[in-house]
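Fig. S4 source data, part A: sequence.
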Amino acid sequence: MVNLTNNTETPIIKNKHVQWLVVFDSTICRIYEYDKDQLILIKELQHPDNKLRDIDITSDKPGRYQSKGYAHGAYSQESDPKEIKIENFSREIAHMLDHGRNTQAYESIVLVGSPHMNGLLLKHINKQVKNLITHNIEKDFIHLGESDLLVRLKEMIKNPL
């Protein structure tokens, strides 16, 4: 518990423990303040470009070449542009979680994301943030509304903080 004072100098007692619920996939991330009975949306990040097909992301097709004689071929792309965008999005989420830790916006985190995105995010989260993760749920719940999400979380987490 933290004692704060308002401008009339009467103490205000505020519960300091804040838990963030981070629900994400490759195109959207929602961060909620979470307790066992309610969710309060704090921030939402959207990257709709991550839904685009590779051909829509790259503006030009790979070039072609012809060597001496009858041999010819096409240049191939060395990296997947869609995967690069998704990786950058996971990096952005990790940065936001680290910023929240640095500003003491939360004390613990529950991560909920598809297995692939979850792996990418964990790759970019630093050790200090990882130490604050209480639950890591590899499920794609981004499509659920807040009430359905709470029900699912209660089923999966026996003792939410």
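Fig. S4 source data, part B ends here. Residues 1 and 16 are 6 Å apart (CA to CA).
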